[in-house]
């Protein structure tokens, strides 16, 4: 059985990324790791630790509910995991527990934020925080020219 660890923070984006892999003939064991969004510092002042953990658990259950039916439709197995702590350490622990497997980062990229690597040998973004897609930069040029 082929084993794949998938890091997910948005169900629709992850299913789009996983679509080419769902047609494989061999049964697959999926380990779906939910990466909950960070709670801002201002909100965390007013919310207790147990309330934050309850919110993370409800968020992850909703995410697993959206992804699991698609992955199990062919008879594959799904193991849900809620990420806590650094993802590199979680990947290392999962590799020790389950042996050799592929790791797929299906988290939605965010503008102006570099996603943290999920494995120790994954390269980090070298461009830093000042990367912009070409369409956004082009729109800025058009707006500057239109203002003149």
How large is the count of helical segments?
5
| Strand element count | 4
The CATH topology name reads: Rossmann fold
Cα end-to-end separation: 62 Å
In terms of per-residue confidence, which ranges show pLDDT below 50 for 5 or more consecutive residues?
none
Which radius of gyration do the C-alpha atoms yield?
Answer: 18 Å
> Averaging pLDDT over every residue, what do you get?
80
The geometry reads as: globular
Strand-and-helix sequence, N→C? EHEHHEHEH
Give the class-level CATH name.
Alpha Beta
Q: How does this structure look, described?
A:
The chain is α/β, with parallel strands linked by helices and 148 residues long. It has a single domain (2-147), classed as Rossmann fold, CATH 3.40.50. The chain has helices spanning 11-18, 41-46, 49-72, 87-98, 134-147; strands at 2-8, 28-34, 77-82, 102-105. The chain has a four-stranded parallel beta sheet, with helices on both faces. It is globular, with a radius of gyration of 18 Å. 16% of the residues are buried. The model has no long low-confidence stretch (mean pLDDT 80).
